[in-house]
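Margin note from the TA: students keep mixing up input and output lines. Inputs are the sequences; the output is the structure of the whole complex. Example:
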Amino acid sequence: MKRIMPYLRLLMRRDSILVIVIAAMIGVTVIYPLSIMVYGTFQTTPPGESSPLTLVNYVTMFSGDWFWEALGHTIWISIGGMILGVFLGVSMAWIVTRTDTPWVGKLEIPLIVPFFLSPFIGALAWTGLASADYGLINGWFDALFGVRPFEIFSPWGMIWVMGLYYSPYAFLIVSGTMRNMDPTLEEAALSAGATKFQTMLRITLPLMAPGILASALLIFVAAAEQFGIPSVLGLNQRWFVLTTRIFYFLREYPQDYSMAATVAMVMLVFTGGMVFLRNRIIKKREFVTVGGKSFRPHVIPLGRWRYLTLSYLLSYIMLAVILPFGTFIAISFFKFWSIHPKLKYLTLENWNFILFEYPSTWIALKNSLFLSIVGAAVAVLISAVIAWVVVRTKAFGKDALDTIATLPVAVPGLILGVAYLWAWIRSPIPIYGTIWILMIVYVSRFIPYSLRSSESALRQIDKSLEESANISGASWLRTFWSVSLPLLKPGLVAGFILLFVTFMRELSCSILLYSSGTEVMSVTMFDLWHDGIFPNLAAIGTMQLVVTAVCLMLFSKLFKIRITEVVK
Amino acid sequence: MQDVKIEKLIKRFGNVAAVAGVDITIPEGKIVTLLGPSGCGKTTTLRCLAGFENADEGKIWIGDRLIFDSEQKINISPQKRGMGMVFQSYAVWPHMSVFENIAFPLRIRKTSRSKVNEQVERALRMVGIEELKDRLPSEISGGQQQRVAFARAIVYDPAVLLLDEPLSNLDAKLRERMRFEILELQRKIGITTVYVTHDQEEAMVLSDEVMVMDFGKVIQRGAPEDIYFEPHNEFVADFIGKINFLHGAVKSRRDDGSVVSIQEGSFQSEIHTTRTDYAEGQKVLASVRPENIIIYTDKQQEEVNIWPVRLVRKNFLGGLFDMVVEVNGKELRCRTPFRVNAKIGSDIYIQIEPKDVLLIGID
């Protein structure tokens, strides 16, 4: 007994208790459902019933052509989206940070707008532009040349939309590293006799490589776990990727929960491996390139070419924001949409329907706002506490806590959805079918994102600020509340806004876990899409865009933070 | 002759002239420092010399080679100027080993493999870090990175070496040691060197010649001792070392010296000096270094430049007393290596030899 006492005392310390409470929370919300799902892959019966353990699901899956086809498709569009996204992002980062292209200061905000836009709505909007049947651009080509060259309902269409809406990841990461790079590193090469080109090839590019590689893997994983884009652009054509295949198993009669879980398992291993790889790369090749004196990085004078680079940036904004979303909003005012939309079909009927007749609209709006505001606040608060425990205390098991809390990064939303189905659909705890299951799945899925920003914000706050509160008599709780939290505020607000936007557009968890009365806006749009009612959908999508934008403006006023700071 | 010559150099940032007409010659094989407070234009001058800033006006030569001329629009790019540079942040490339960092300039010059090895080894030996050659920059200390930067700058035998506050990121002890090492190295390879610093002690130790800069201009140039003992104006006198200023005007001038009447509030007196730089009636600062004020506890027989004072403050710095005395409301700083037994508040005497009184003319 005497030998256990010190350990027991260690466990009874308040920070250790905090660790245990949080770990238990994560255990219930992430690890338990995933374990049940893994168990489900060895079952042939739906959740709640039990059959003898068997490998039959894996055998069926690995011997089915459909699986290999979906896997191939996933890899195909992920690699395609990654290449396009990285190319767009890196080239724009270079133009913005290192050339004398005009207006780059003014374009800073428009260039990151796609980061806030939902790729799902992006895919929907692009159908209005590049569908072979009713795409506007095809209409223009049809009128001019008599051909309709584009078909968005294709793998290339998916790659295109993914590249457009994931390029901001690469843009933000790479432009950040480019801005922070010590310019004397390049000057040293120049004065050592290297030409500008040699310097770029042998100094700048290698220094950028970790950032580029990290953003490439990030985009790859994001594209692989995308559900909205391949469901809009592929489901009707029965062109499946892994995520839509999982969805198919759960929605088509006869439902096959076991097979969904088994395919989900493959995805989990796949994305887990990728995230692991990415962390290895970042850890191994993190260069400290921030220098002493702050001279601006060398700007390359482009001469007349700078108008070309400017039009490149403008084209991106045009293609990612103005054209698709302009079209999308326009569609909401048309009775029919075709390659040559006719003014006589202009109508307010869609809006009338959405606002006053369609029963789900207001329920979905209310649910989305509730989940986004409360959910984001809860997630940020929890991650602030975890960050504080990890960074500031010597609590028992804090590093393990950090790892566990970051784990959901590697779990695609749809897969967590499958896990939640397995865990809660027949559970005696009556949570399935309520709004709370959505809240829990949102929070636990996205805590890693706010956790990382909270941790880095906390690391930048000198510990002595807290220690001086302690020495003047404040308890640890008081210190956290009156010193740490206010100092963390800018970081936390940024995390909150980011999560708010993410939750507002969340589709892949919600699509499996909503039920009548708890639908959110993305889900409503998804249903309308598969009912084939595009103009009504466009109205509700426009509503989602407007509400999100208004909230963003309100938050930025309320918390006195610029939107560009959110993504830094 | 490979002298570096800068002529009428002007560099503006917006409306501010960071460099406002600098003329400098750096004799071959010498080490010249550009010394001044931050914002004085020393770094900008160096960066114009390196080719990283594009000067608005002026000319720059290395020997007979014109590398910059605003009129003829000649501006040789940095990589063709054949200079070596050590940056304040060292700028050691984090993705290359120590060896590769140093080898880089040679590889750019397509030097043969055996030659690269030989020259890098030599440079490594010279800065004393042979054993670190396979390490990454993140695995070595700041002082060692500094040596890498140095080796990289000299490995290809450049005509000119530029050093931009290379020691400012090191701790005091290491900084002091590195001064001597840099000087020794410079002497060994005899490279023409331009050294930028805001640290006057560093400039004193290192330079063949010091250029004191302020507001984008070279205010005074000369050997370190001359700068210290014969400052031409108030700024230089004050910036280099410590000094006491006494406002006054030349009362009379003879061949062997002048007498200055001092007007410092209620301290009205006369001071004798051996200087004859200024005519009668000229307003001057009679300037005296603290170490040239002699302290007496008893009344002395001398007749000139002696005043009764009150000891206001006394600090023992170890080997040196640093004191403040007050005479009719004017405070003077004194320094002496001799033990001073007087107590704070006691009445003592100070004396200044006429040869130690400098005159600096003011408007």
